[in-house]
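Hypothesis: this fold can be encoded by more than one sequence.
Test: take the C-alpha cells below, design a sequence, compare later.
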C-alpha cells in the first residue's frame, strides 16, 4: 500500500434528470458504475472501496460487483442540488465508525468518468503521498481550445474573456499549455476534507490522456464513450 490508508468513495445517487438511471445505464456491456468499481478494486493502493447511494438497485449492483455498500446515503445528500463535499464527509464518517479505523485520505471516483485506468489511480496516489499536496486532481491538456481563444460579447463587441490572444498566432503555438479538470480523480487529505474543501491550498495534477478523460453527462457522451471502447480496447484503459 502506498503512503497511507486511502478510502475510495464512488458516489452514485439514483436520481438523474439528464439521463434516467445514468449510473447503471449499460456502457460497453455493463452498468456505467461497474467501470469505476472494477478499476478501483484492481488498485492495490486503496484500503476500501465504498459506494455511496440512496438507490437500492444501485446498491445491489455495486455489491454484486464487489464494492462495499454498508450504509445508504440520506435523502438530504441525494438531491439534484446536493454538493459532493458533504457526501464524501458522510461516507468517511460512516466507514471510520463501521470499521473502527482511521483513513489518511479520500479518493473520489465519479461513475461518469468510466475510462480512467488502474495506472491513473495508482500514479495519482503516488503523487499524493510522495509530495506535500493537500490534494491531487486529474486533468487533461487542452488541445483544441486554449484560454486565449475564449471570448465574450460586451456591448455587441467580441472581447477576450480573460486573456489577450496574439493576432495571427497558430493555435498549437499558444503558450503556456493549458489543462482542464476532467472529473476522473480527486484525492484529498482527510483533514482538508473535514475542514470543508476537496482541493485545499496545495493541489497537484495528475495528467490523463484525452481518450481516458471522457465525462458522461448526456446521450452524446454515451455514444462517444461506446465508440472509443470499440476502437481502443479494454487493455488501454487498464494500463494507460
Amino acid at each position: 500500500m502506498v503512503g497511507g490508508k486511502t478510502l475510495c468513495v464512488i458516489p452514485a445517487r439514483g436520481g438523474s434528470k439528464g439521463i434516467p438511471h445514468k449510473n447503471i445505464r449499460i456502457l460497453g456491456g455493463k452498468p456505467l458504475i461497474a467501470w469505476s468499481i472494477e478499476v478501483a478494486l484492481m488498485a492495490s493502493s486503496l484500503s476500501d472501496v465504498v459506494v455511496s447511494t440512496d438507490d437500492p438497485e444501485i446498491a445491489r449492483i455495486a455489491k454484486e460487483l464487489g464494492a462495499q455498500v454498508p450504509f445508504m446515503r440520506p435523502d438530504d445528500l441525494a438531491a439534484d442540488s446536493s454538493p459532493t463535499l458533504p457526501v464524501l464527509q458522510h461516507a468517511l464518517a460512516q466507514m471510520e465508525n463501521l470499521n473502527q479505523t482511521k483513513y489518511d485520505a479520500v479518493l473520489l471516483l465519479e461513475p461518469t468518468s468510466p475510462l480512467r485506468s488502474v495506472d491513473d489511480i495508482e500514479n495519482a496516489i503516488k503523487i499524493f503521498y510522495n509530495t506535500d499536496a493537500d490534494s491531487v486532481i486529474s486533468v487533461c491538456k487542452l488541445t483544441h481550445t486554449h484560454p486565449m481563444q475564449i471570448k465574450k460579447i460586451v456591448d455587441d463587441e467580441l472581447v477576450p474573456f480573460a486573456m489577450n490572444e496574439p493576432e495571427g498566432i497558430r493555435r498549437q503555438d499558444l503558450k503556456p499549455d493549458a489543462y482542464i479538470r476532467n472529473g476522473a480523480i480527486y484525492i484529498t487529505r482527510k483533514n482538508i476534507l473535514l475542514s470543508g474543501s476537496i482541493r485545499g491550498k496545495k493541489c497537484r495534477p495528475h495528467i490523463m490522456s484525452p481518450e481516458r478523460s471522457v465525462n458522461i453527462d448526456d446521450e452524446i457522451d454515451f455514444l462517444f464513450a461506446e465508440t472509443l471502447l470499440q476502437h481502443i480496447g479494454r487493455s488501454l484503459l487498464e494500463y494507460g
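Residues 6-139+181-238 form a domain with the Spore Coat Polysaccharide Biosynthesis Protein SpsA; Chain A fold (CATH 3.90.550.10). The chain has seven helices and ten strands.
Hypothesis status: open.
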